[in-house]
Amino acid sequence: MKLRRVVLGVLVTMTLCLGLGAAQTAQQDRRNFWALNNTGKEVKSFFVSPHSSTQWGDDILGRATLPDGMGTLIYFNSGIQTGCNMDFKLVYSDDTAQVYTQGRDVCQIHAVQYNPDTSEAF
Prior knowledge:
The chain is of the alpha+beta class. The protein has a single domain, classed as Immunoglobulin-like. The chain is 20% helix and 34% strand. It contains one helix and seven strands, in the order H-E-E-E-E-E-E-E. The strands form two sheets. It has a four-stranded mixed sheet, with no helix packed on it. The chain is globular, with a radius of gyration of 14 Å. The two termini are 13 Å apart.
C-alpha cells in the first residue's frame, strides 16, 4: 500500500512538472500512459502492440534504457488509430524478456507498473 502511494505521488508530480509542457508540444491522445519499471532489472527495449496484432513493431525506447524504479511517458501517434487494448514486451539488459499479453485497456488508466511477473494499472 505504501509503494502504491509513493508511485501515485510520483505520477502526480511528474504529470504536473512534465505533462504541462508535453501537452503543448504533443497532441493529447487518451492512450498515452506512464510506464513504471518495478521489475528489478533495467529495460533495454520496450514494445507496445495492439492486443489484436501478432507483431511487436519498433522499440519505443530507441537508444534509451529504463532503469529499475524509473518511469517514462508513453505517447501514441494520434494519427494512427489502433484501439485501446495493448500488449507489452519488455526486454531486459540481460537479454531476458517478459511479455504482458492480457490486453490492457490504456484508455482507462494513467499508468502501468511492471513488476517481475505481473503488471498493475492505476
